[in-house]
What does this fold into?
Amino acid sequence: MARHVVAPVGEIPPGGRKLVRIGERAIVVFNVQGEFFALNNRCPHKGGSLCHGRLSGLVQSSEPGQYEYTRRGEIIRCPWHSWEFDIRTGKSWCDPQRLRVRHYTVTVEPGAALVEGPYIAETFPVTIENEYVVVEA
Ligand code: FES
It folds into this structure.
């Protein structure tokens, strides 16, 4: 899988998102309190744009009359029919075993690590076995 530089970190502030195109794919990158996650922008229900969805969290209850609002900003709600997906995993909130949005690995890397350049010579592992030089090519 190829790696693609999609934005400087400062371009997607906490709580923000950015829609990027990588080849034919539209991918939305989210910043959740300094952590970055990427989902396919296409909702698996009818194709709504998750980039245009509303962020929410979870309301959980341990007993009647008690509730807690957790995971604020970690759930994206599709703007078309309100299906909800976990930004961290792409799993549907209502049916996590069957429904999910494809998610992609995201890393944050220093610019110096990315400017190595495109011209890298092809290399091969070399071993020495009893006076013979063997190249795996
Ligand atoms: S298209 Fe997303 S919920 Fe229907």
Remarks:
- The beta strands are 17-22, 25-32, 35-40, 54-63, 66-77, 84-86, 103-104, 126-129, 132-135.
- The pocket of FE2/S2 (inorganic) cluster is lined by residues 43, 45-48, 78, 80-81, 83 (CB under 6 Å).
